[in-house]
Structure to design on (255 residues):
């Protein structure tokens, strides 16, 4: 895991924006795995600005991590709408796929989603946010560390965290479709962003804690090319904070 600590959320976002742009320049046919959440909003704005400055995403394919079960793609609180608003309607790409919350046969749809990722050649770069409880995608604590795309039930804490997009907590759907942890680990590279003090405990558990399904993000310790970019506030509980800074200063990969 390579850990980069930046002074501000803005610097975290700029780092991630550069990483994604260089992936697309290096491989214009990149397959990107995309995430939602507040963390990603300024990142998508940055990518849209790069596109307006001339970066071509026309051959890029994308697959989103997750979607709420029961919401249509045009529901204002769906992740499909979030993606459209913040990213897809601003940049032409080869294809943009999300899990379909209204699929008639959810299990079959999950299998097809996995197949579609494989048929696209697999994910080159998977973007990830981090839940306060250590979730990635919607893989809540106790998720199987070898899971594929499937339906999961949200924890109460996640429903509370996400209620700002809905009229009230009661309206946050209980079930979601999410890429699995094994799906995420199959990506060639992972890029996880987190900023702000409320993420600091989950960040420390992910980077320095034991690998455990109680903190699903900790499984990223097994990924050979995982980059974690956090701000000072989110780095607050890292025991090895100074070591990570030193690794970067020496231009070598952190463990
Ligand atoms: C949401 C999403 C995750 C996201 C995380 C953090 O529930 N399913 O993919 O990374 O929670 O969200 P935020 O960036 O709003 O803190």
């Amino acid at each position: 895991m390579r850990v980069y600590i930046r002074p501000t959320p803005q610097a975290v976002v700029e780092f991630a924006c550069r990483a994604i742009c260089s992936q697309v320049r290096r491989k214009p046919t990149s397959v990107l795995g995309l995430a939602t959440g507040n963390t990603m909003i300024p990142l998508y704005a940055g990518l849209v600005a790069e596109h307006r400055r001339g970066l071509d995403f026309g051959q890029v394919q994308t697959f989103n991590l997750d979607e709420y079960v029961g919401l249509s793609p045009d529901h204002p609180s769906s992740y499909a709408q979030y993606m459209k608003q913040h990213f897809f309607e601003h940049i032409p790409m080869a294809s943009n796929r999300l899990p379909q919350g209204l699929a008639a046969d959810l299990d079959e749809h999950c299998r097809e989603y996995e197949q579609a990722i494989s048929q696209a050649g697999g994910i080159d770069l998977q973007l990830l946010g981090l839940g306060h409880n250590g979730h990635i995608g919607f893989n809540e604590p106790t998720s199987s560390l070898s899971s594929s795309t499937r339906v999961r039930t949200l924890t109460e804490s996640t429903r509370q965290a996400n209620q700002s997009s809905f009229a009230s907590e009661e309206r946050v759907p209980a079930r979601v479709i999410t890429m699995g942890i094994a799906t995420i680990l199959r990506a060639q590279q992972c890029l996880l962003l987190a900023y702000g003090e409320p993420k600091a405990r989950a960040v420390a558990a992910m980077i320095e804690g034991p690998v455990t399904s109680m903190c699903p993000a900790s499984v990223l310790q097994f990924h050979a090319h995982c980059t974690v970019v956090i701000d000072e506030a989110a780095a607050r509980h890292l025991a090895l904070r100074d070591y990570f800074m030193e690794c970067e200063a020496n231009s070598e990969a952190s463990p």
Summary: The pocket of GLP is lined by residues 35-39, 65-66, 129-131, 137-138, 158, 162 (CB under 6 Å). The CA atoms of residues 79 and 85 lie 10 Å apart. The mean pLDDT is 96. The chain has eight helices and ten strands.
